[in-house]
Structures are given as C-alpha cells and as structure tokens.
C-alpha cells in the first residue's frame, strides 16, 4: 500500500476491518516530537507503529468546493443528502457489498457493470441488471449468489466478491442521512446535495478521534484524524508484532486469576534500596521474572538490641519456623508502663534506680521496689497554690517478701527505670506471639529456623517485636532460578514491567529467601511513619519550683515570668550592673578599647528568663584583661583572635577615611 495522509486513510477506512496496524512514514518535524492537539498529547516518530482500534466522530464540516465556505454541522443533523451523480460507482464487488450506505445493505438489490462480464463461458452484457440475492462462503472464499435475466432467460450466477470492475447501483434518486453518508466509503468522497443547505454541491469533511495502541504506552492513545502525518497500512506483515503495554508492579496486585505469568522489567526501582539482600540488585532493566502469585503471609517488624554498630531492623515472615522466649521489658518512664494496661495480664516490675517525684503530694521510688501495675486514675495536686487534676498510674508497692504492699499513685511524667519481672520460660512461635502476647514485646531466639542456611536472628541477645504488618507481597522468582523465590512489596518497591508472551512455568519454588529481610535504616524510619499509631504523646512535666525561685532572686526588679518582657535598650545605652551580669552584654564598658571584647551568651542559654531547665554550674572564665581596659571593671572578657583584631582595626580606618 502506498503511503497516504493520515486524514485520507481514516476517511477511506472500513470500520469493519479494525483493528489495523499503521506505520508512520513522514510528517514529523523532529524525531520523537510531542504534539498537543486540543489538550491531548501524542508522540509520533518516523517508523513508529500504531494499532487502530476504534474511531470516535468529533465533528462534521460541510464545505462548498466552489466558494470555499465551510459550515460545521451538528452531529444530529436531520437533513438528507443526494449524490450529484445519478449512480454510485464501485471498483469491486466486495466494495459494492460492504460499503453501501448503512440501512441500504439489505438484499436483494440490483447493480450493473460498465463492461461485459464473462462467467463460465457465458457473457453478461454491460448495463444488464444483476440482482444480488445472498452471500456464501466456500473453501475459505466468499461468493455472491446472483441472478440475471437475458434474452435467453434467467440465469443463476456465483460471483466471487474479489471480482474487479466498475459497478453501479441501479437505485436512483435515493436520499441518505448524515450517518449513512459517513459510513459509506462510496458517498464520503462524492459531492452531495442537501435542500436544507442550499442548491450547491457540498463535500462532507468529518474529523475523528482515532483510538490506537502504541509501543510502551500505558493508556490508549487518542489522535485527531487531522494530524499531518503520512501513514502506511502494514497489517498483513505485522501479525507477529506484540505491542508492549507497560505496567507498574503495584497494578499487578489488582489482577485476579492471571498467575503465574512471566514479565520483563522495563525500569528498576527508582527509590533507595529498602532491603539488604542478594536479590534486589538483580531487579534491573531487561531482567525476566516470573510472578507466581500473591503472598498471604503477614510480617512482624523487629529490631535488635543496640550494639557497637547500633540497632538492626528486620521484617519477619509469619512462615518463619524459629521459636522465641520472652525477655523482660525495660520502661524508662511511668508513661511507658501504661502501654501494658491493655494486655489483660498483670504486669510486675522492679525499680532499677531512685526516682524523686516532682510533685510534693505524690511519693517517690527507691531502687529495688517491686511494683504491680493496676490501672489509670486521676488525682489532685497543688501547683503554685492552685489545685490541678492530673492522670496518675495506680500501683501496688512492696519492698520485701515480709512487708505488706501499699497502693501509691505515680505521675505519668515520672522518669526512672523499670524492668519487667518475667517467669515465663515457654517457647513461642510467631503466630503464638501475635495471638497470646501484645506487641511490642522483648524476645530472644530459642530455636533457629532450620530451613534457613544462616539464621541471623539467633546472634542477637534480644529482639524487640514492634508491630504487625499486613501489606500484600508478590511471590517472585528470577527466570534463570525458578526454584528460589523472594517476595516483593509493590507498595514500597514499585517498578515498570510488561508481560511477555512466553508461557509461565508451573514449577513451584522450593526455597523462600524472604523469611527474614533486613531493612535499611532509612526505610525503617520511613516505615514507622506509615504505621498507624493511636498513642497519645507523653505528658509534659511541670516546671521545677527551685528553678523558678532561683530565677526570681537573680533578676532584680524582674517582673513575673508570665509578663511579656520589655525590649532591650540600644547597645549604646546599655549599662551592666553586677546583679545583671547574667544578661547578654554585646559591648564592653570601655567602648574605645577594641583589644578585648566579651562574647555574647548563646540566645538559648539556660539563664534566660522563662527557661524551663535549671542552669548548670559553669566554671568562671579566666581573667584576661588588656592594659586599655579599666582595672575597676567587674566583667570578664574572652580574648579574641589576633587576626580578628587586625580586621577590626582595618575596618575602623576605612570608615574614618570616608
């Protein structure tokens, strides 16, 4: 087929022959140019292939070929059209039977030939009417059953639809609707008349939105038929071509009943690695993988105890076959003890260091005290001569076996050290831990998983099981090693791929490499943000009374902490007194001397008014005074670098010069 403009090809296209494969021949100004037409984006390059799958009529323009005037017709135009010529011409019998206007394809109908037809030694003279009765197929070929009446009587004919010639319909003065004209190849390119539009001959110019499939395009491409490119129909020689439709691995999760299947990776994961393992480096462009299906296993997020290299983090599959023993948990504050209240079991802890309560009305704790956590309650405390209600944890305390226990209330913000008393020596599997214990909990591997060549979990003295994760994973294998599988989480490790036409193997993987996956530290903290959390933030401890009293005595003439502080005076008028030596001073008393300058305290210094932390004792600066500094000065200054002094002198001279 010779190349045609895209618009000419679409106008001559038989919709019944779809889909058709086209090759872009020319008309692209730059290779790979992106065209945006009517808000739609399409990219066509010379040599690109597209498979036309459908047409959608956008508008119809009615043009007068003599004056050039054009008018857009509504798609529901009610007028009727008639050909300017009496007869419609067809170049083959196939076109006569398939391209007649819609609604006029009922049989029988009559036609004539412009030349004599010779069939089986019998000649049908030109102009003699022939009636087409029906269509039939024999040995893969299509035929038209016809009848004609000549001088010697009526004859039955069987004409192949591939018969070439010049044929005309016998029907005259037939009117056609707009839809019939657009669906007829014979009428679309002819001049028509319509009484509703005037007496002149008209040409109808429809514009279609062409739906096509292209290589590496995820969605169906929609191209206007007026795009100025030349195309060639290569359907007959392109039957073996497979149009690649890229998919994201996360989209594969929505497929039902399609597994197993083979795919090829188009682009590897864009994100930083989330696992530290041997199979992630293989997920690169061009790698073929087989997806066996979805994994129904859940996972446990776990962290090891801190060592010389810090903590390590893992995802443990529910198929992990190792056994665990419980370890005592450590709680740094009373607030952390409240997390155990929902377990439904009694929690007993031992105090590991003395804890002094910041509330005068509440008790303190001593190292060695044994506590049994009871429940949360509220109590009244006195703060700044005001009674306030706070949350407290009710516990039962006993210091020895002979002493009776007493109930005491502990504020949630009390900092101390608590270690759980554990007398459970039972071995638990992961499903048993999830069912019988509450996360988070501390465990130690008692029995390693024998199916793993190297169970790294057994090398840690303690593991903290933090949360259960129920994300869906895909069981995958490399095509060159189908007996070994690993599990990919598409929500966290997405990548582009396409399905190949190769049949998937039915081999079941024997080895699972994803029972224990070590996480990178960055992904671990990212995963913590994704996990749901309903925990309330810990309570804010009250201000310390001793600090408030000390701050009030050190600042002479200072107002209440709640009062807004006055702005500082200009530096030139700022005078320091011995009582105010704690306030920032940005300029020495002797302004003319630049040999020694006092450094200003940090703006976050604990000596500021309103600070909530008690000031830490600091060693006084060593006396460092220059001869130009007054001996009566009560301020100490830090020596500054000699180079800085020279720089300041140069700046002064430059200012005086100007």
Automatic annotation (TrEMBL):
Residues 18-238, 259-486 form the CABIT domain. Residues 620-632 have a biased composition (Basic and acidic residues). Residues 592-611 have a biased composition (Polar residues). InterPro entries: CABIT_dom, THEMIS. One of its GO terms (cellular component) is cytoplasm. It holds the Pfam family CABIT. Residues 533-632 are annotated as: Disordered. GO terms for biological process: T cell receptor signaling pathway. Belongs to the themis family. This is CABIT domain-containing protein. It comes from Gopherus agassizii (Agassiz's desert tortoise).
